[in-house]
């Protein structure tokens, strides 16, 4: 648990969790808390039991011709902690996992090593930033990653916010209506609602950094009529190779805030974030 002045900010789950033995998963964040302690995310939602808070995973993990489980659905897959600790500056976490599946060499050999740094900024008057820097390095020849094998192609970094009836979607060009297929809507999307149930809005914006692999990324967005997660997509339905000696880098910022998207200048905030090396 990460706290500021005794108040919870986020919980990074390292130990596996399941629902009566099904959908076993780890290596994700839930709950993610707003500035007033409201929970912004869901875990094991009734419509998609495999969804979990803030997470990053894929339907397709391939090693040559071998398909290694389905980590998106939390089937036949595990994330084993190699190290976990506080960053030297004391402002976040650095966690290294290795990926395994019983479908690949009976789960005896790691497929890929993932290192995630999560930097938590102190809360400002009305907002807080949380940065994710995720690096994926294969440990086998022939590793490929891919999203859902349909026209949607979802996969990668995802946030399962609470699916509330008043959930509003906003991007740089203004309010959005989610569609079935991936959308080109820019470098950030905000999700605002009365998450605390107190009659006023709060929210979380997801910002994509230009160094993220696959930038600019399309977005899969879902509202309460068809509840699901929110996802800047990488790489899509067609799996891409991750060669030995190279790495995938996925880099995102969450901006937690009071009020709706109009309560802060997300274009300026993204410009500041994009300028970071």
Give your account of this protein's structure.
- By secondary structure, the protein is mainly beta.
- It has one domain: Beta-galactosidase, Chain A, domain 5.
- Helices cover 3% and strands 42% of the residues.
- The protein contains 1 helix and 22 strands.
- The strands form 6 sheets. The protein has a 9-stranded antiparallel sheet, with helices on one face. A 4-stranded antiparallel sheet has the order 8-7-13-21, with no helix packed on it. Strands 1-2-5 form a 3-stranded antiparallel sheet, with no helix packed on it.
- A hairpin with a 2-residue loop joins strand 7 and strand 8 (66-67).
- The radius of gyration is 18 Å and the shape is globular.
- The relative contact order is 0.17.
């Amino acid at each position: 648990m990460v706290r500021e002045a005794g108040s919870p900010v986020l919980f990074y789950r390292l130990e596996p969790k399941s629902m009566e033995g099904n959908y076993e998963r780890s290596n994700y964040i839930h709950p993610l808390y707003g500035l007033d302690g409201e929970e912004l995310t869901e875990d094991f939602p009734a419509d998609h039991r495999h969804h979990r808070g803030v997470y990053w995973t894929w339907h397709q993990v391939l090693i040559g011709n071998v398909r290694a489980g389905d980590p998106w659905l939390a089937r036949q897959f595990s994330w084993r902690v190699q190290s976990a600790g506080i960053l030297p500056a004391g402002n976040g976490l650095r966690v290294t996992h290795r990926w395994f599946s019983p479908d690949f060499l009976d789960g005896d050999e790691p497929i890929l090593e993932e290192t995630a740094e999560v930097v938590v900024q102190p809360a400002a008057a009305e907002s807080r930033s949380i940065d994710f820097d995720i690096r994926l390095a294969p440990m086998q020849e022939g590793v490929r990653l891919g999203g859902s094998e349909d026209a949607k192609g979802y996969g990668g970094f995802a946030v399962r916010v609470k699916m509330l009836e008043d959930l509003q979607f906003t991007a740089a060009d203004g309010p959005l209506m989610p569609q079935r297929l991936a959308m080109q809507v820019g470098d950030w999307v905000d999700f605002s609602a009365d998450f605390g149930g107190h009659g006023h809005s709060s929210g979380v914006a997801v910002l994509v950094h230009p160094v993220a692999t696959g930038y600019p990324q399309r977005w899969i967005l879902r509202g309460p009529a068809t509840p699901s997660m929110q996802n800047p997509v990488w790489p899509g339905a067609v799996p891409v190779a991750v060669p030995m000696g190279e790495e995938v880098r996925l880099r995102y910022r969450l901006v937690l805030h009071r009020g709706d998207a109009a309560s802060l200048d997300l274009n300026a905030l993204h410009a500041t974030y994009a300028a970071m090396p």
